[in-house]
Request: fold
Amino acid sequence: MEHKIDRISELPEHVVEHILSFIPMRKILQLSILSKRWQNVWALLPITEFSQYIPEFDPYKYSKKLGNISDKEKEQKIQRKKDDFSYFMERSLRSRYREGLSINMFKLEMLFSESDSALLNRCIGYAIESNVKEFDIELDEVEPECFYDQLPKSVLTAKSITKLSLDSFKLDSIFYSDINLPSLKKLSFDGVCVDDQVIQALIDGCPVVEDISIRCCYGLKSIHVSGLLKLMALELMLNPDLERVEVQASNLQSLHIYDDYQLCQINLAPSENLNRLLLHATTITDKWLDDFLLKHPRMEILDLAFCNVLERVYILSRHMKTLNLSRCEKLDEVNINTPNLHTFGYFGGGDISFSFNTMALSEANLSFLGGTPWSVEKISFLTKLSHPKLLTWRTELVESLIIPKELRESQPSSLYNVKKLELKALSSPKRNEMSELLDALLWISPLLNILLIEWEDKNMSIHSIFFKFSYETPIYKGENPNCCKRLAYTCRRHCLKTVKIEDSGGFADKKELEKYFSENAKNMKSFQYS
Reply:
């Protein structure tokens, strides 16, 4: 029998390390079985990523495979599985520490109980001593409010750390007042119990930080950001106790505040570099927004959602490229003069006063509230969008887009420059209403190249019907028909050349669709359905 050669083991060590650096940890575990040499090499990689949720270590998935055994025996086996993970992680980090190797990244995801504190302290110590650069720990509490509150102080004074990400920790200012992270560029707290003093100590102790994200953190009442000359992005999301935000950051480019209606007071010093603002569920007023836009004329991206005090939005800007207005309940007047706007999104009623001047608009995302009926005002709203090339329309009920025939006959088509229309719904279209739906959609955008109708079923599975159209210059036999004379564009009835439909789920009625297009496309040369 021919002897099989282990080619992997013949590779130089630096080549093996390079190969492994591109492979997820779970795959490396499997590969280590194939070659004895790899069992040792992978343990010396500069990236250490540990997750208790991969199949090899996940106690919950493992428990489902145990079958009918006693609860005591099951508990013992699950504990051994947890111990395997703990041993694997600690051995890996200890090996790097003893070899004097640096660690570029330490990432950990694990179930946490108080009995794990000592293990975490040791592993974190090995990582810090190995001059870790990216430090990322995400803990899931086994018991409610079981936070890890013994983070070694050395983490918050580590000169090597450039990225710090903590999830489900507790930091008390009594123990963590002296913070010095001179190399930190990115800070992320998620679900951390923390007070104002710790956050202020972090801000004061991270002079070169560029990105700060604080999410769902309890105990934080106020935050004052100043003196951070390199800070470019700040995110404050769903911090339930937050009452006051003050920001003075001259180089800040992006700010995202999600307040969840906590009446948080927001004070922003002007920043000439700020070009992206996202405010969700804040209580900003018309005057606040006017003053802000006046002081930040270079704003490129503005996203306002659930800002329920706002009644009017007036924007005059040649720099604005993206604007989203979503579910601002009292909003009844929008005046937009943004000649370079590329993307516009709107979710709300269709009866607001709307003035729109956007010469460059290429994409629109719309969603009207379910109770908003079709009216002349709603159609006028669409007409003022200046004809984007791509329109994405989200709706709960597909039939809400079926515009009454009498309105269609009395009004011109709204968006005849749209080339691609994507309809995304939370319910399936009715099979017997497909022709009527098509008639309405092709009235809104009569010269589409692509139409996609997509919906979810009760099991959250996605289904779709895809239409592709092509056109030709109409050749009239005799007099030019009235339907073409009164339109500002070529009539679809006389220029539609081919129709191609992809209905993978077989939802639509092929005969009904073919009949519809035969009756509404006088010169159609090809109809394909698959």
